[in-house]
Design a protein that fits this description.
mainly alpha, globular, Globin-like, single chain, 6 helices
Length: 128
Amino acid sequence: MEDIKDIQSIRIFVDEFYSRVRKDALLGPIFEGAIKDNWAVHLEKMYTFWNAALFGVEGFRGNPFAKHAPLAIDEKHFDRWLELFNETIDQHFKGHIATDAKNRAALMATMFLSRLQNITGSTNKVIV
């Protein structure tokens, strides 16, 4: 297996990952409800996002957290998202950039979950 090396590699893992997400019993309904018939637009945005995140290529515009904030998601969703993401990367790639992609995904999941819990409260925190 080769490492993630360019936009073509990104297209492979993004397409495969979201194919898995769409079929997943937990994540599929969340994504379908949010994205509806705009999958082509979403996938293009994800190619651009990961190209910027992994290779510093300019072009991504957006606020990923703002898109996730209104969704009814919690830790189990992020855990499943990471599981599918890591499986997808591991199935197709091996190397430094592949590891970096998995680390960045884990960091994003942790940050998003923390921010969502700060907005909505968690079981160990009361927001008045």
